[in-house]
Amino acid sequence: MRILFAISCFEVGGTEHHALKAMRALEDAGHEVAVIVGRAEGELLDEFRAQFRIFTYHITSLTSPTLFSAAREIRAALDEWKPDVVHSLDKYSNVLLLPIARLFGSARVVGSKRWFRYVPKKYHLLNVASFKFAHVVTANGAAIRDSLIASDGVPAQKATVIWNIIEEPLFVRPELQWLEQRRRDFALPDGAPVVGMVARFNPIKDHATFVRSMALVIAQRPDAIGVCVGDGAELQSTKDLALQLGIPESMRFVGYQPNS
Q1: Of 125, 93, 122, 126, which Cα lies nearest the Cα of 110?
Q2: φ, ψ for residue 200 (rounded to 5)?
Q3: Taking the CB of residue 27, how many other CB atoms lie within 10 A of it?
Q4: Residue 218 near residue 224, CB atoms below 8 Å
Q5: Are 56 and 38 in contact (CB under 8 A)?
Q6: Which domains does the chain have, with CATH numbers?
């Protein structure tokens, strides 16, 4: 079976990691897998490129003339790859891939909703319209599936849950030597209690609440250390907040870290 995944970019995030893990698992099971992306950039690009065929389309906004050229590029990719399944994984890819794949191909078309908080009305309405072209719409949690049915007009029989994929090796306790090296890399004092947050610095992740919570913890446990793993647009403002709260020496911002 040929399966084409669709994501917006290769930045580090739950959607992109889920796509990469799902694609690897499907390839291991004997399927042919490729990905189509609007922006072929981001920290995970090399990992995708090393293993999978990448198709691209180019669009500046959904209201610009590039919408039509992007549609042509997507259709050309579908004609070349001839997938049996097209699976879109985010609110931007849904809008383009679902209708084009359904109207100009024979593939089974799978949409996805992976957000719970408010999105701009324009994207909400566009996704609601796009879901009508999907044979199935996946959600990464039961509450999100409920919202598909209650507010997005997706029939219950078309809405299903596929949880985020977590690889089994991540549940194995690391070797002591690896832990000790990480403590040195992150300048963590011996014996200090450590509280961590692993997430891209996007507004929806709300790092500000984590930093404010750490300020309360540090007031009671001055030896505590907060560690933020990840990169993103909100990194500097989060560092500034730690400075305003008087806890910059108790915070570690260690950037993107690979699992290995």
Answers
A1: 93
A2: -65, 145
A3: 14
A4: yes
A5: yes
A6: 2-161 (3.40.50.2000), 173-255 (3.40.50.2000)
∠ Cα 136 140 143 (to 5°): 95
Residue 248 has which token pair? 């910059």
Which residue, among 249, 236, 165, 246, has the nearest Cα to 207 in the 3D structure? Answer: 236
Q: Please check whether residue 109 is in contact with residue 86, taking contact to mean a CB–CB distance below 8 angstroms.
A: yes
- Among the residues of the chain, which ranges form H helices? 14-28, 45-51, 66-81, 91-103, 121-131, 142-151, 176-185, 207-220, 235-244
CA distances from 192 to 117, 185, 213, 224 (A): 35, 15, 17, 6
- For residue 159, give the nearest of 134, 184, 176 by alpha carbon: 134
**Is the separation of the CB atoms in 165 and 89 below 8 Å?**
no
- Separation in Å, CA 194 to CA 207, 216, 217: 16, 14, 11
* Percentage above 70 pLDDT, the chain: 99
User: Residue 241 pLDDT more than 70?
Assistant: yes
Dump strand ranges (E) for 75-182.
Answer: 85-88, 108-113, 136-139, 159-161
Q: Edge-to-edge, what's the strand order for the sheet holding 225-229?
A: 194-198, 225-229, 251-255
Residue 207 to residue 213: CA distance in whole angstroms: 10
Indicate the SS3 state at residue 185.
Answer: helix
Give the C-alpha separation, 86 to 110, whole Å.
Answer: 6
- Cα(43)–Cα(45) distance, rounded to whole angstroms? 6
Q: The whole model's pTM is what?
A: 0.82
Q: Are 86 and 105 in contact, with CB atoms under 8 Å apart?
A: yes
List CB contacts of 204: < 8 A, sequence separation 6 or more: 115, 117
Tens of pLDDT, residue by residue over 28-44, are 999 999 999 999 999 89
Instruction: Locate 16 and state its tokens.
Output: 């992109």
